[in-house]
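In this section we turn from sequence analysis to structure. A common task in structural bioinformatics is to predict how a protein folds when a small molecule is present, because the ligand can shape the pocket around it. The inputs are simple: the amino acid sequence and a SMILES string for the ligand, here pyridoxal-5'-phosphate. Study the lines below before reading on.
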Amino acid sequence: MEKINKGKNIRLSKSCISHQEKEAVQLVLDREYLGMGQEVQRFEELLSDFFSRSVICVSSGTAALQLAIVGAGIKPGDEVLVPSLTYLASFQAISACGAIPIACDINEHNFQICLEDASTRISKKTQAIMPVHYSGGTGDLNQIYNFAKINNLIVIEDAAHAFGTKFENKLIGSMGDVTCFSFDGIKNITSGEGGCIVTDNKKIIDYISDARLLGVERDSMKRYQESRSWEFDVKHQGWRYHMSNIMAAIGIVQLGRFSEFSDQRQLLARKYNSAFKDLDTLKLLPWDYTQVVPHIYPIQIKGLRDRDGLQKILKSKNIQTGFHYQPNHLLSFYQQSKSIYLKNTENIFPELLSLPLHPDLTTEDVDYVAKTLIEYLPDFLF
Ligand SMILES: *Cc1c(COP(=O)(O)O)cnc(C)c1O
């Protein structure tokens, strides 16, 4: 196929909003009940059906992680194992609880937390492990849960990238200890901002259900009826991390469109894979795109000399790119008392490039991106 673009700006990622989301928001605005109420309850019910588990919706994926950590009983000073190659939110959610994120290396073949490395970082204070389902795929979750069991850790899955992904034919979020999703603007589904916690641990659900609303005891049921508790007790710290009806209205529509989104994301990722299959310089993630719903499409470019230059030339060809992520263990705030070296993370990071991926792209767009990259790549290698 020839390279065609016609000046269309190809964004790295974006929200995909139809008239349905706009109408749903309009209805909430017309009803003039914008806070947490019946739309939030409905969205939670639909998500519960989707995962066959209890779901609590909150204001962001970061809030979901923070509440999951506190709800799981992690205390200030406790340590949580987490891969360094993740969005800053994973680290901030841990430190927001007063807990200490312990940065771990990644496996070079799938960019997921390396358990061998993690095992060297366990101490008496380690209470949890937070695997991050980077790009939408997962490592071997059986191994992660075995590791957690042996070391007596709770698993809090950062599944912000992995809405809809399956592991061994089971939906992420339908099994395991606690799973957190993000519905921010560019994730696999969005509610504007937003997130949710999925678990079958009733203690955690009850705790989070109150904690997201300032810790007011059993206020959620009242809010769903669009009322509130006037007299109440509070037994622990809470936050204003609830979801609004406006957000939930968007999320409900997006959940209904999810199979359309996931089909397109999988199709586009397969298209990239086949365009790149003969290039030895490119390391592709090993996902089976019948199981994995990709949130981003990162590649490792072996021997990449000048990422900035490559990104600039692609930009001039209407292609926006990015890189996920700057390793967190190198940030001033998270440099531990002794500085650590994470070999795979530090070797891979400078060679990472994320290519455009969102459901509004066509296979022709992906073809154009792949061909343009292949054309200019040699100028940017050592
Ligand atoms: C998006 C994201 C989060 C946080 O979600 P927000 O809804 O943006 O707060 C957490 N972890 C990862 C890996 C993410 O990509």
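Residues 60-62, 86-87, 89-90, 132, 158, 160-161, 182, 184, 195 surround pyridoxal-5'-phosphate (CB under 6 Å). As an exercise, try to locate the residues that line the pyridoxal-5'-phosphate site and compare them with your own expectations.
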